[in-house]
Amino acid sequence: MLQEDTFRHKGLRRKLVDTIRRKGIDDEAVLKAILKIPRHCFMDSGFIDFAYKDQAFPIGEGQTISQPYTVAFQTRLLDVKPHCKVLEIGTGSGYQAAVLLDLGVRLFTIERHRKLYIKTQALLNEMNYKARFFYGDGYKGIPAYAPFDRILVTAAAPEIPDDLLKQLKTGGKMVMPRGGSVSQEMILIEKTGDDEYKESKHGLFVFVPMLKGTSNGNNK
Ligand code: SAH
């Protein structure tokens, strides 16, 4: 069952939005989504006091729900329009997915951890967010539904996966943290032609690693 969304939660969300705005996010549509979405519902009920701090937090299976500022930053950089077709790598808690869905995109999201895939799919359905969920290795993307207008990677890898570049539409954009285990640079790729890309860098962040293959809970 969904956790209640009380006045207290709503008040904490207003403060969270103020914090993110102060850190430089000025995209009103993104801020509105953060104001609306009950982030505490994406975390276990024991951790409600942490839900509206601007921090990442463990969600089980060794994974984290991204920091709200990071979610806002990636979403703004991705520059989505209503109805555009978006591929998210790393469904995780589903919070980033909810922000994208709130902005009116058609979302395809892929997770390599079977338990998270099952749990988050159920949660977002219960919250009436409609996305297409996939259990698999995000390095491969989802060729059957390509090409995508936007690709958002929410785990870090040392290189931009070729398969994902191939699945990006010409004129499309991809956002991904690229780097090693300590910190990563936020990269924006714009596909300007059949095999032509423009790359820009947008500061340092810390993400969990993008791992190869899938995990059904018995292996890592
Ligand atoms: N978008 C998520 C962020 C979760 S952290 C949120 O808003 O909560 C990153 C997620 O990426 C983790 O759940 C992790 O299991 C997943 N992940 C890592 N490597 C992956 C891969 N190769 N394919 C799909 N998901 C991957």
Structural summary, described in words:
By secondary structure, the chain is an alpha/beta fold. The chain has one domain (7-205): Rossmann fold. It has 6 helices and 9 strands, in the order ααββαβαβαββαβββ. It has a 7-stranded mixed sheet with strand order 5-4-3-6-7-8-9. Strands 1-2 form a two-stranded antiparallel ribbon. α1 packs antiparallel against α2 (28-36). The longest helix has 16 residues, at 7-22. The two termini are 29 Å apart. It binds S-adenosyl-L-homocysteine (SAH). S-adenosyl-L-homocysteine binds at residues 63-66, 89-90, 92-93, 95-96, 110-113, 116, 137-139, 154-155, 208, 210-211.
* Domains (count): 1
In which order are the strands of the major sheet placed? 5-4-3-6-7-8-9
CATH architecture: 3-Layer(aba) Sandwich
Report the radius of gyration as a whole number of Å.
16 Å
Distance N to C terminus = 29 Å
Biggest sheet architecture: 7 strands, mixed
Order of helices and strands: HHEEHEHEHEEHEEE
List low-confidence stretches: none
Q: Looking at CATH, which topology would you report?
A: Rossmann fold
